[in-house]
Design the sequence.
């Protein structure tokens, strides 16, 4: 089973502050990296699908970067708002097989007013 | 609305009583997958299907069965549920198993199963 590590496990951030967290994964046989936002009592929703080394994706105040050579991705949230409170999951796809994504345990983000 | 519909949302059952969790998608997706979520663990794949009549085991398939007779439906069957199958289950679908393009996986709303 692929080793996917997300850090930190949880994070408390003041409203208005910016924050970032990390996803680490084996760099060999890399095909793609997904980020999902998972709000309490809801289902995970896709944020980004990233494939190329150096990729940078942005959706509103949230952005992500990808380094496939060293096996990590950063997710950034600028000017955190209460609605950003959620668990953020990363999921690499390696090996190209139909077994698909391997999910990390997530970073649980709490925005404090 | 494009969606994955999972039923039921909540289920409490007794050990050994067969049950089925249904999953249906209306996006003509080829790829469908079942995951379970347990405290302290990431989403773990139970079974997946690349297309109709093509299914395969994920990381934690023991105690589960699936079928894919139609493209839209991918039910999860627990023939003889046990307490260690108490978990939160998600069905997900994607255009294809090639997870390099498109908009990622679309998840159902989840089924919280308790086996007593």
Sequence:
């Amino acid at each position: 089973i692929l080793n996917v590590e997300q850090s930190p496990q949880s994070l408390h951030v003041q409203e208005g502050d910016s924050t970032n967290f990390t996803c680490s994964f084996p760099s060999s046989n890399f095909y793609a990296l997904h980020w999902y936002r998972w709000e309490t009592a809801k289902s995970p929703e896709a944020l980004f699908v990233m494939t190329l080394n150096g990729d940078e994706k942005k959706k509103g105040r949230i952005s992500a970067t990808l380094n496939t050579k060293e096996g990590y991705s950063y997710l950034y949230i600028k000017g955190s708002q209460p609605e950003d409170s959620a668990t953020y999951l990363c999921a690499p796809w390696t090996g190209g097989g139909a077994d698909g994504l391997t999910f990390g345990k997530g970073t649980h983000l709490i925005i404090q007013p | 609305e494009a969606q994955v519909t999972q039923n039921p949302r909540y289920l409490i059952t007794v050990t050994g009583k067969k049950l089925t969790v249904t999953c249906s998608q209306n996006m003509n997706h080829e790829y469908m997958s079942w995951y379970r979520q347990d405290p302290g663990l990431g989403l773990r794949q139970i079974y997946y299907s690349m297309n109709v009549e093509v299914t395969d085991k994920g990381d934690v398939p023991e105690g589960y069965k699936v079928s894919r007779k139609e493209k839209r439906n991918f039910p999860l069957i627990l023939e003889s549920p046990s307490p260690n199958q108490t978990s939160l289950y998600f069905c997900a679908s994607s255009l294809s198993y090639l997870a390099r393009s498109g908009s990622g996986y679309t998840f159902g709303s989840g089924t919280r199963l308790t086996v007593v």
Chain B has a mean pLDDT of 95. The radius of gyration of chain B is 13 Å. Chain B touches chain A at residues 31, 33, 35, 40-45, 48, 50, 56, 58-59, 90, 94, 97, 99-110 (CB under 8 Å).
